Automatic annotation (TrEMBL):
Keyword Aminoacyl-tRNA synthetase: no
InterPro entries named in the record: Aminotrans_3, Aminotrans_3_PPA_site, PyrdxlP-dep_Trfase, PyrdxlP-dep_Trfase_major, PyrdxlP-dep_Trfase_small
Name of the protein this chain belongs to: Aminotransferase, class III family protein
UniProt GO molecular function: pyridoxal phosphate binding; transaminase activity
Highest taxon above the source species: Bacteria
Organism of provenance: Neobacillus massiliamazoniensis
SUPFAM superfamilies tied to this protein: PLP-dependent transferases
TM regions (residue ranges): none
Keyword line: Aminotransferase, Pyridoxal phosphate, Transferase
NCBIfam families: PRK06917.1
Family named by the database record: Belongs to the class-III pyridoxal-phosphate-dependent aminotransferase family.
Amino acid sequence: MEKSFLIKPMLDEEYPVIDYGKGVYLYDVKGKKYLDAASGAVTANIGHGVQEIIEAMHEQAKKVSFVYRSQFTSEAAEKLAGKIAKMTLGELNWCFFVNSGSEATETAMKMAIQYWQEKGIQTKTKILSRWVSYHGITLGALSMSGHPGRRARFAPLLEDFPVIHPPYCYRCPYKLEAPGCNYLCAQDLKVAVNRIGAEKIAAFIAEPVIGAAGGAITPPKDYFKVIKKICDDHDILFIADEVMTGFGRTGTMLACEQWDVIPDIVALGKGMGAGYAPIAATVASEKVMEPILAGSKSVMSGHTLSANPQSCAVSLAVLEYLEKNKIMNEVECKAVYLQNELEKLKGMFPFVGDVRGRGLLLGIEFVKDQESKTPFSRTAMITQKIVSIAKEKGLLVYPACAGIDGVNGDAIIISPPLTITKLEIKELIFLLKETLDLLKVQIEYGGQ
Ligand code: PMP
């Protein structure tokens, strides 16, 4: 292919043309094979080319591909909503389908504001969030995102929603360790609420495991319990952004289950369609929907392709595939093996600082010095180097920020399809070691 008419994400990088995908592998038109250890962007959760999903798409397309949401519903959308309600904890019974994670978090934000309005409270319009977070690229979602790099250009258009720091235990700002720390970083939410005024705050949003902005920063045991209690005590809804963590990525339908917390609203995306179709959802509890259904009767949001039958059929087939093959049950075992192997890298490479994550959403933070945890300079471009050396070697890893001072530092996410086999995990580790060997040489000779 001589000329690409696409706007490339990185103009100076090679941009291969993919021919097809099978399982955890992608193959480009030149025949090069890539082990997709990132599931694209933590999306291809069941791998590529799964026949059952292709058949479900085909069957739905034979019936009907599109109906408009304000005129009709479809069997696929109804079944999917019912199944999600059944598979999520508590009374998260209402699904509002959208097309991307950004739309899902933005709808969650609007739903929270509408909830208070329907109860006669007009002042609760702020959403609080954390620094070192990413909730999406549309302006509402970006307003909630504590990602200075992505905010900078549009700063005048954004609300200042990020107010507290994340549970970044590797670099605890209080120099403490959980649980002895008394979860001070979570207690900070109470301070922020008192400063701003609970009467102005509709909701607090957080990712259970921080993805792109933090390289799989994972909270200690009772962190979310403390957060939820502060929200409940101050009449603030808790929104879990499970766009990256939901649909089995950490071994349970929602990652929140692992911290024994039931959110009021959940945003889902990515793994919902597993890359086979664009679909995302905002899932609301009975509590949230009650005043909305009694008042305006509908959620003040929506898109032309909301609840698209084709996408819903895909997502339903993905859920059925996860269930039938008991894929979520196997995540923990695979994750323990992979995480142990990643931990070993600390002993082999002096620049592997931290290995963290939950389930098959794992992160590695890279540092100049393990002891002092000094980060590399920004000009060393360590993350970009790792991603491109790995790609050269046929391994796809997801670039992230480590979470220092907002979103600096170097980190990658390792998040292969949940269907990866032990043998494929071994290959992943082998290719990652080769990547880091080459990085080591570059660092030694480059003098970073
Ligand atoms: N929330 C989280 C936690 C995400 O990781 C992402 C995407 N990386 C989004 C929201 C936005 O999703 P999308 O790119 O599908 O709009």
